[in-house]
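FAQ: What does a ligand-bound record look like?

Like this one, built around zinc ion:
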Amino acid sequence: MLDTVLIWIDKNRGGWLEDLKPWLRLASVSADPAHQADLTAAADWAMHYMRAAGLEPEWIPTARHPCILARTPGNRHKPDAPHILFYGHYDVQPADPLDKWITPPFEPTIRDGKIFARGASDDKGQVFCHLAALLAWKQIAGELPVRMTVLLEGEEEIGSMSLEPVITQYADELKTARALIVSDSNQLAPGVPTLTTGFRGMVYYQVEVAGAAEDLHSGVYGGAVANPANALVGMLGALHDVHGRVTIPGFYDEVVMPEASILQQWRQLPFDEAELIRRLGVSELFGEKGFSTLERRWCRPTLDINGLTSGYQGPGAKTVLPGAASAKVSMRLVPHQDPLRIAAAFETYLGSLKPAGVRLKLQRLNASPAVLTPTDSPAVAAAAEALEIGFGQKPVFTREGGTVPVVSSFKKLLDVDSVLIGFGLPDDNLHAPNEKFDLASLYGGMRTAAALYDRLGRILSNGRGG
Ligand SMILES: [Zn+2]
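The answer part, i.e. the structure of the complex:
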């Protein structure tokens, strides 16, 4: 049956593009209240498309943008079919700066084998791969190989504040899912299907150092009063040693390196360091001594200043002794590091570095743990087979340096393991002008999704695993 579904998907390529375009035309920018109607329309589009695919969608209002929860009715899947949960988001990042777009962000345009539009890759195009696959299964087979629940949200780009309450509200129902499928990430390179098996967590701080009640004259008072800018850069500068290692006591205590066999696999991945240097415009790469670039990004924790503000910033010279200085500091965490323990260690150490004459105020803005998904679960085996069917190549197993907080939420609230099966590419321009999704990714992604549900249906209904 899968073969027939795949043939039908391949035969209707032009039709799929026409299906997807109206969704991409909706400017569902969750950060901008002016786009409220577009968000409603984008959620509505998803409701209609899922109905066509045989699902029964429910509109869940939230404080801001609705969630959609869609289920396969009992007569549309095999009686013993395993329950699978799919998550995606229909909101998009703002499109500005608009003048940097070659074609308008909300007028999907095909060029060079790619579809250009805001949301083409993140995440409408990737979600569409799954919805189209479900539609194809319904058209060809009349029923799905799995019992499907699709959960779409409209607040991913602004922090998913309604998602945990919705998951909690429906937890009894969602908990029976054997796997969570998420397609909101990248392949390592074109033609290299990829399963992401983990990503880093994060702790984020606002750091403020205060001295005098206002800016002072640096000639009159310089040398007599502590300078908060000097104090802040001194403290922050002490957080790394010359080898790029973070100096916070205990920072690395819980870090566990991946097994040698995984590190060996990473060394064989098609990763081009020279290309990265060119693309980023840096003179050379830099990071913690003794680790490769992929290790530094995927399995080593980091600390970075994300913003730094103090004193006079206008043209020319102005001799002030600033009254305050502030910084934004984030730490990317790896599996087994406890965000709250790291946060406490950061606070204690920074406090100990504070010189006399200034006050230090720390505000924690964020704390989420890293996530490691099992690499040997039946769901991952199904996904690996599906990627090979979809893209004609065996997948590689990678990790992601970034943070995907929603996956942590699902793990925490439902204890379900996720399969991160991204179809995007590193040059998709997510969050930037000229976002695109390769048509090869779109069609390969639809084929993969169709095969994934077939394999999940077989593998999970036979065995015990999950
Ligand atoms: Zn996304």
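Follow-up question: can I read anything off the structure? Yes, for example: The chain has two domains: 2-199+370-462, 201-255+301-368.
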